[in-house]
Amino acid sequence: MAGPIVVGMFETLEAALERRESDAARLSFPQRLVLVVAIGAASMALAAAGRGVVVEPVVVPTPSMVPTIPAQSRVLVVAESLFADAPSRGDIVTFASPEDPDQRLVKRIIGVEGERIATVDGQVTVNGKPLDEPWLRPNTVTKDLEPITVPPGTFFVLGDARAVSVDSRVFGPVPEEFIRARAGAVVLPVRYLRALI
Hints:
Helices cover 21% and strands 30% of the residues. By secondary structure, it is α+β, with helices and mostly antiparallel strands. The protein has a single domain, classed as Ribbon (Umud Fragment, subunit A). Strands 1, 2, 3, 4, 9, 10, 11 and 12 form an eight-stranded antiparallel beta sheet that branches. The relative contact order is 0.21.
């Protein structure tokens, strides 16, 4: 039951931070330290229990996830196998690029199988209804998105910095088996440290 334990840990930490809808919680230094220690402890405990590498750092080299994840940030990702539930809209995931399986990308899930994804006046819609995206900068416009019904077993992903992100608008929906992990926290630079789950 490692999945619920890890997910519950992040939910408890996030709740304690009184997250605002329009902006992820800003952490004090003690809270940042607690978060990093908790993630590290969970990683070591699960690895010792034979689960292998369950938490690892990943560099996000581009600004495609700004403002959520600044370029060149280090993000701790949690292995997908630890979660009891399937990825859902809003989750930030890492996956093998459909264009280059050796390249790891970090994007946000916007649509799941069976949903119709489109835009109206630059705003993403899901099944014809505007999608609330509090993670975007104000007045963000989403362009070059051809309407699509997400095929079974796939996810439609976008970067938060729509103007520069290479995502499902380019390479199409991502097969579920390509998804390796979910982003747990930005850890470096320290001034950006924050929980993402």
